Amino acid sequence: METPSQPKENKPSSPSKPVYHVESTGSYWGDVREAIKKIGDIPCARSSLLSGIASGLGVGVIRGMSTSTFVAANWAVGAFMVISLGTWSMCRTNMENERRRVQQVVEQIPKRFVKPEGESSSKD
Length: 124
Known about the structure:
This protein is mostly helical. The chain has a domain at 41-112. Helices cover 60% and strands 0% of the residues.
């Protein structure tokens, strides 16, 4: 039971996921600028966006050689969206699978070093 004179016990808390929400400053463009500066902190965002930009640019240029600019721009935006979302979801899935494998290894480590009950620690 906690009383005012006794401080609450500090229990080790489990690591929580980072929160990517930042308080608003009241300036829309200032908030957008700050969000863009922190885009690299989001897992998989940088590589996904770079893949999407490169593929969108490539598809847009190739498509622009044979069609109008408007059609090429639509293809470029579509390719950007599909490639960015696809690579981001694959990256997140791979990260989650890796996290699960690491968790399984960490859980199995103590089991490897436990001696069976019948064995003694000294050799006769």
